[in-house]
Amino acid sequence: MMSTNFLKYCFLYIFLLITGILQAQTTVSGKIIDEKTNKEISGVEIFINESQKPVLTTTSGSFTVQSDSIIYKLKFSRKSFAFETADISPDNANNLIIKLSQEKVSSIEEVVIHNEKTKYKSKKENPAYRIMQEVWKRKRNNGLEKFNTYTYKEYEKIQFDANNLDSTFMNRKIFNKLDFIFDYADSTASGKMALPVFLNESIYENFGENKPNKKNKRLLVAQKTSGFQDNQVITLTAKNLYRDINIYDNTLNYFDIGFPSPVGTDGFSTYDYNLIDTISVHGENAYKIRYQPRRTEVLAFQGYLYIDTDSYAVLGATLKSTNKINVNFINAISTELEYDNPDDETFLPKKFVTEIEMTPFAKKKSAKSIIAKRSVDYYEYDFNKPLADSVFTRKKEEYDDRFVDKDEAFWASARPDSLSKQEQGVYEMLDKLQHTPKFNRIVKITETLASRYYNITKGIDIGPITSIYGKNEVEGDRIRLGARTYFTQNDPWRIEFYNAYGFKDKQFKYGVEGRYMFNRVNRFMIGAGTKRDITQLGVQLTTEDGILSRSFASSTVFARGENASLSSVNQTSVFTSIEPWKNFQVRVDGTLQSIKSANPEGFNLMYYRNGDLRKTVNDSRVSISLIARPGAKFSQTGVDRYEHGTLAPTIVLKYTRGIEGLFNADFNYNKLQFMFYKPILLGSWGKTLFSFEAGKNFDTVPLALQNIIPGNQSYGIVPNTFAQLNYYEFVADTYSTMHIEHHFNGKILSFIPLIKKLKLREVAFIRGAYGSLSDASKNINVDNLKYSAPDQQIYYEYGFGIENIGFGNIRIFRVDFNWRGNYLDRPDASKFGIKAGFQFGF
């Protein structure tokens, strides 16, 4: 499945590069002394931020460290002294005093602690294995599950910095009249510039109840975004880069790609572990274990685990990607996790910091890149405090824009830590840019590419720009121009329309739809629309009822064979929908339509009704759809909203009733349909996309109203279709289909010399369909002998694909090789085919 959100990531990245964002140099100096004697200590190793290698080993009591990136933390280590950490801010960067205390720490009985990787004959000889066994035995759960009720706050900060931009880049014409942004930059030791440019702060309040009923609520209290307060698409793009993780899980989700957890019960199948020290972490004695992947080509981490010597709880962990990470647009990932452990069975998150380096160019340290850093503080935990039922009730005021109206006094008191000077500069710089016409033009271009609509005046957008040109057998070359109303991202109403013209059939087509939402809380909405257009029916089983749903015909520019099986559809629809519960929608559609062949000479839709031969189907129907998206996360509160990237399933149950005689409708019929779709992470083995659909027509209807097993005669990859089926090859009263597609993420190809250097990834898939078609349903159609169902055996096709094809960090091309498994004796059966497409994802 293609990730539509990724386009937003890409365009956001280009925008940030153009604006010339950079990261700041930091120097920290101070003195290290013995806590008891106040004498200076030498021979101390100093680590910057999450670095695994010391940047300096002191030769005296004084020290000075310098970095090309912002220093927010220093770590001090010396034999016979407790490990010490210092948070760095502009206020204490000079004349820092570090006091080290001598401390005895326990060790595992008869274990020699090594600082370098040690080879063991078996993992049972490895002392780190004994420690990890204890961790697995006492695997902990999130402590929130053990209390009757709980509340806590989250402070989330997301910052984007541009990196490795030099004076040549700064002198480009694009920065003419924008060069004042470099007043906020500092020179690094390499002579290049660094400056943060995007900052988003959010504060959430969390409420939960485990007994007597399990329920929870996460409420956005305040949000502040540098320069983009009215552009939540960019803010959402930033938030979509990150997923919540639990270090105790076997698989950690980054970009909806599974990475094996070093604390997972199957960690030793992926990682080598080495006990290197015992240190003090927040006053607790801890084993420091270094881990690294056995094979650097796999998607895995390297770093350190800090395990409590008494309780074997994870006190903290660092996760850093290898230099050979095979993820599109990503050069590096690093995460630091800190936990509180209130008892022997549970943990509570304390602080998570994740840093992602993104670039579309090359995986080189000198490449121009974006550093995206997210830090989350969890604080003010409170347990077993009575919570009224009204706390969990969705309220109208939660869905307005008040969360962006907090003043500076609120933020100064609400932040767990104050902003650094560089972070404060982001707000000031972006405020100035808002008043620069050139900058606003760049933003407009970026928004156009991300949304596919171009704003021509207040409240009016034209587009989508990607649907302007199409081609099919009936219309030939096709031009489509559309527009919509758009005032803000939270519009309670929207009107959209389009006009299209085919140069072969010389016919105009049109479509118009309006929607209005009465209540933001339960999303109670009504809408109506009408259209007249040429459509490829039979490419989707559980169809969308929206008037302006995408027409497959207009996008089929290249296809195998001739496709004349297009329909002319006149349709008018009304609908209403509501979400009585979060992520559960009830929708009712009423549709009046007439359907006939758009190419009578090449595609016959004629049928018999009461002995008469008819060419047009008149249909009046009512549909009721129940749509569940458990776990899905959305932003915005208008008629349109943006979805955060999750692995949430989609479950649809739909009932359709055709009503004969209503507006001259020809048929009474009943149809029931079910659809389930779910992405599933399988650890280091990749991700499976699973889709299942089933349905039944309980009455006899002509071909235009039947269930068509979706074929795909285009050369492009179309999800949930059968690559080797022709359109209308299988027709069914009763049907079931299943699609299983597994992405190995390079797991297999990484073993092959030379091939692994190409960083290609393998995909395997199998598709199946089974159904039946009654004699009555066959005989009602004039071309009755042409249509049949896959009832002799399950139709199946299979194959493999190669994805991640491209260069540098831009690897968005995919090629699939498809084989037809059976029904090979059918006329015009396609036994083998190659399809290709662009796949925007990590």
Explain what you see:
The protein is mainly β. 9% of the residues lie in helices and 44% in strands. It has an 18-stranded antiparallel sheet that branches. Helix 1 crosses helix 4 (232-239). It is elongated. Residues 1-25, 104-115 and 187-191 have low confidence and may be disordered.
Point out poorly predicted stretches.
1-25, 104-115, 187-191
Oligomer: single chain
In terms of DSSP E residues, the strand content is: 35-45%
Question: Percent helix among the residues?
Answer: under 10%
Mean pLDDT: 81
The value of Rg in angstroms is 30 Å
Shape: elongated
- Tell me the distance between the termini: 12 Å
Structural class: mainly beta
The count of strands amounts to 45
Number of helices: 8
**Major β-sheet annotation:** 18 strands, antiparallel
Pfam family, one: DUF5686
Signal peptide: 1-24
Keywords: Signal
InterPro entries: CarboxyPept-like_regulatory (IPR008969), DUF5686 (IPR043741)
Write the layout of secondary structure elements.
Layout lengths: L4 H14 L7 E9 L10 E4 L7 E2 L4 E6 L5 E5 L6 E4 L8 E5 L26 H11 L3 E2 L6 E17 L1 H4 L15 E2 L5 E17 L5 E11 L6 H8 L11 E4 L2 E4 L10 E11 L2 E10 L7 E8 L5 E8 L8 E11 L5 E13 L10 E15 L24 H7 L6 H13 L3 H15 L2 E4 L1 E4 L6 E4 L3 E11 L6 E10 L4 E13 L4 E12 L31 E15 L2 E14 L9 E3 L2 E3 L2 E12 L5 E2 L6 E2 L6 E9 L10 E13 L5 E11 L9 E2 L22 E2 L1 E10 L17 E12 L2 H5 L15 E13 L2 E11 L11 E7 L4
Parallel strand pairs: 1-7, 8-20
Antiparallel strand pairs: 1-4, 2-3, 2-5, 5-6, 9-11, 9-21, 10-11, 11-12, 13-14, 15-16, 16-17, 17-18, 18-19, 19-20, 20-21, 22-23, 23-25, 24-25, 25-26, 26-27, 27-28, 28-29, 29-30, 30-33, 31-32, 33-36, 34-35, 36-37, 37-38, 38-41, 39-40, 41-42, 42-43, 43-44, 44-45
Helix pairs in contact: 1-4, 1-7
